[in-house]
Amino acid sequence: MGTWLDELISDPEGDVRYNCVGFHGATCGTPVPEWRGKTRLSFTTPDGIGLSVQWRYFSAVQRDTLSSDCDLAPTPAGAPTCVPTARPADRRIPAQNYIDLTMTARIGDHYSFRLGVNNVFDREPPMATQLPAGTGSGNTYPQVYDSMGRYIFAGVTLDF
Question: What φ, ψ does residue 64 adopt, rounded to 5°?
Fold first, then answer.
């Protein structure tokens, strides 16, 4: 599965219109990657043992104040034209990739077991120093990126 986002137009007032695709920040809020993807490869044997690998992808985004669109990056007081600016640490959030593994086992007609690891390589979430109020936590965007790091899960299903 993959998603390409062509436009995310905001029209907050009057003649002000801007496209937030590929940006994050005070105006656009949480990151709006142009590309997102999720691919899963699974194999299950006839006796009910399975293995699944998933790849999650988010393309890079940059700070909305770096846009060349003056509606998105307004002109600072006293500047003659739109001047894109951002702290060096907040200029760009690079593309993010995560790998997840899940193993399953069906025992008899009534029991299914699963064990998995999300974010197998324990990738740290991308950091941003200036997050808009209400959109981030812990200097990252947990709504978009995996902020917990690697985590293991297990489960049992009983069919009766």
Answer: -65, -25
